[in-house]
Amino acid sequence: MSRALDRSGAWIGWAFFADLAGALALTFGYMFSRSVTMQYPDKEKWLPYSRYRGHHFLTRDEEGEIKCVACELCARICPCDCIEVIPYEDEKGNRHPAKFEIDMARCLFCGLCEDACPADAIALGQEYEFSSFSSRDLVVGRDDLLGKPGKATTGGGVVAARLNTEQDVLVETSEPQGYNWWRNIRRT
Amino acid sequence: MELVFALGLIAFKVALLIAILLLLPLPLTWLERKIAGHIQQRMGPMRVGWHGLLQPVADGIKLLTKEDHIPAEADRFLFKLAPILALAPPFVVFVAIPFGESVSVLGAEITLYVSNMNVALLFVFAVIGIEVYGVIFGGWAANSKYAVLGSLRTCAQMISYEIPMGFAVIGVVMLAQSMSLLEIVRAQADVWNIVYQPVGFFVFFVAGLAEAQRIPFDLAEAEGDLGAGFHTEYSGIRFAFFMVSEYAVMLLVSVLSVILFFGGWNGVLIPLPPLLWFALKVAFFLYVFMWFRFTFPRYRYDQLMAIGWKVLLPLSLGNIIITGVAFL
Ligand code: SF4
Ligand code: SF4
């Protein structure tokens, strides 16, 4: 009985386009929900999570000496073969890289180099704006890698930003923490 | 003197109408993209002008400066004729459309329509039927399979849906005892036709959606399967002609819905200027068009035909019979 009622109810709904009306109500609701657009680069910018795998950086120990011991494990494990390490020995007999180059154009940001490194010398940091007009510029050397920003400390968020195109193209931000982008995602 | 004044007035009205119809697609495309954006939780155009308000102008400049390409194998005469044939009828139709009762400016009575024909409704349907030639010629002349398929579909669609559309308004004509749009609106001063003719309105509006080639009936230019349908091969200013024509038809269907079923410029409850009431109602229908577009998927071709012939046609005929019986 109830099933028959259900079916006739469904039929009435169908005849009066209940399904279409439901769809219209849904899109109307969405129309007044907040949009999720992040207005990068001239108004807003995204701050990565601490787990984010961006541009590599090399670290130094307490004495300011480069941590890397030039074991070339990272170069071995790299699936894209994009790390090149040439070691040297300093006067105390410690191995260090004389040349340490990463070809960012080939890197797939898997993070295996970070996992393989026995000296915690290399890691993938928070920088993600390093596009260039020439793939040659994407081969980054030792000294550049030492200067790159490390892991993010604050969680992901969207902060106000300003586009500066005077010399280079820069997206400047001042705030350390922004709103959580996921709060605008509507799930129904 | 009288004659010169009258002629000047008509010329002025026609010029104003053309200007409005040519310029209206600008805000409408902006609105459409904004609505699309917000329904999909995006923002739509944001960069050109305040909230992207000047985006249509930028698009217009782009279209005007783009290469106007004619395919090598195309029938050049028909190819050039088609956009004009598609553009002119929706403009011509507005000659017969009243926008309100007369207003007096500086002591002179000025009517808010170019001409008050006693067969205005017939004129509207006759002229709008010509638009299909633009679509067919455009698809045929381009000599491209997508364009031909698109125009064949449109041809069948337009013919199928013009019949229920014509039948749907017969109920309205019976109620008003007149084919003049002015008389039809006057007849609705107390009760709007939608109260007596809900089925008629439904058929009219669905057929209007098909006539304006909007989703869910936009098979003529189904982006997903036909490139852009009949105007696949068009570029630059000729493409813009088709776009303007599409928006003009959309506006026409909205205006006709308001005049035939929603009391024209007669207001309810809130006393607003009649012209404002009219504009508000038309704006609502334009919004509904866009709202539909970003809510519904497209019907399949056989479904489209089935809806036209097996649902809308019987419904509109039944509507005529019931209206006639109720009248007796
Ligand atoms: S992230 Fe992966 S691909 Fe990139 S350098 Fe490290 S190991 Fe190679
Ligand atoms: S970065 Fe780490 S893994 Fe790579 S060479 Fe240096 S110490 Fe070895």
Automatic annotation (TrEMBL), chain B:
GO terms assigned for molecular function: NADH dehydrogenase activity; oxidoreductase activity, acting on NAD(P)H, quinone or similar compound as acceptor; quinone binding
Primary location recorded for the protein, binned into one broad class: membrane
Domain of life: Bacteria
Top EC category: translocase
Membrane topology: Multi-pass membrane protein
PROSITE patterns: COMPLEX1_ND1_1
GO biological process, one term: aerobic respiration
Protein location: Cell membrane; Membrane
InterPro entries xrefs: NADH_UbQ_OxRdtase_su1/FPO, NADH_UbQ_OxRdtase_su1_CS
Keyword Translocase among record annotations: yes
Pfam family, one: NADHdh
EC number from the UniProt entry: 7.1.1.-
Catalytic reaction equation(s): a quinone + NADH + 5 H(+)(in) = a quinol + NAD(+) + 4 H(+)(out)
GO cellular component, one term: plasma membrane
UniProt keywords, alphabetically: Cell membrane, Membrane, NAD, Quinone, Translocase, Transmembrane, Transmembrane helix, Ubiquinone
Residue ranges crossing the lipid bilayer per the database entry: 6-24, 77-99, 119-142, 163-185, 191-210, 239-263, 275-292, 304-327
Known function: NDH-1 shuttles electrons from NADH, via FMN and iron-sulfur (Fe-S) centers, to quinones in the respiratory chain. The immediate electron acceptor for the enzyme in this species is believed to be ubiquinone. Couples the redox reaction to proton translocation (for every two electrons transferred, four hydrogen ions are translocated across the cytoplasmic membrane), and thus conserves the redox energy in a proton gradient. This subunit may bind ubiquinone.
Assembly mode: NDH-1 is composed of 14 different subunits. Subunits NuoA, H, J, K, L, M, N constitute the membrane sector of the complex.
Family recorded in the similarity comment: Belongs to the complex I subunit 1 family.
NCBIfam families assigned: PRK06076.1-2
Name listed for the protein in its UniProt record: NADH-quinone oxidoreductase subunit H
Gene coding for it: nuoH
